[in-house]
C-alpha cells in the first residue's frame, strides 16, 4: 500500500523534525498524528477503520500501481490471519462464561 503526499508537504515535514504516530484503537480504528521535536502531538489528522484501510489498499488500481505479487498478498493474508488469532485469543481470555 502506498500513500501519495505532495513533495512540498513532505519537505516541510522532514525539515521540521516531525514524526508520524499511528494508533489502532481496540475497535479497529486507525489514526495518525504528528509530533514535533518538543514532543507536542497534534490531534489525529485522520481516522479510518482498519477494514476501510484494507479495502482502499486492495483496489484493482492500487494493486496495479504497487505491482502487487501473489507472494505479497499471501504475506498480507498470513499477517491478517495471525491478527485474527490474537483477537480470538483475547476474546476467549476475557469472555465470561454464561452462568
Q: Can you list the strand order of the major beta sheet?
A: 1-2-3
The domain tally reads 2
Tally of extended strands?
3
Task: Classify the secondary structure makeup into a structural class.
Answer: alpha+beta
Instruction: Summarize the main sheet.
Output: 3 strands, antiparallel
How would you describe the shape?
flat
Alpha-carbon distance between the termini?
Answer: 46 Å
**Rounded radius of gyration (Å):** 18 Å
- Multimeric organization: single chain
- Would you identify the regions where 5 or more consecutive residues have pLDDT less than 50? none
Please state roughly what percent of the residues sit in beta strands, choosing from under 5%, 5-15%, 15-25%, 25-35%, 35-45% or over 45%.
Answer: 15-25%
Q: Mean of residue pLDDT?
A: 82
In percent, how helical is the residue content?
Answer: 40-55%
Describe what you observe in this structure.
With 99 residues, the protein is an alpha+beta fold. It folds into two domains: 13-49, no CATH class; 58-93. The protein is 51% helix and 17% strand. The protein contains four helices and three strands, in the order H-E-E-E-H-H-H. It has helices spanning 7-16, 50-57, 60-66, 70-94, and strands at residues 19-24, 29-35, 46-49. The radius of gyration is 18 Å and the shape is flat. The mean pLDDT is 82.
Amino acid at each position: 500500500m502506498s500513500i501519495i503526499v505532495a513533495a512540498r508537504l513532505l519537505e516541510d515535514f522532514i525539515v521540521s523534525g516531525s514524526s508520524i504516530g499511528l494508533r489502532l484503537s481496540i475497535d479497529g480504528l486507525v489514526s495518525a498524528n504528528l509530533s514535533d521535536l518538543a514532543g507536542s502531538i497534534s490531534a489525529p489528522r485522520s481516522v479510518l477503520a482498519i477494514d476501510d484501510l484494507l479495502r482502499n489498499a486492495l483496489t484493482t488500481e492500487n494493486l496495479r500501481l504497487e505491482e502487487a505479487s501473489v507472494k505479497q498478498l499471501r504475506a498480507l493474508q498470513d499477517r491478517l490471519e495471525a491478527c485474527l488469532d490474537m483477537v480470538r485469543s483475547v476474546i476467549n481470555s476475557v469472555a465470561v462464561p454464561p452462568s
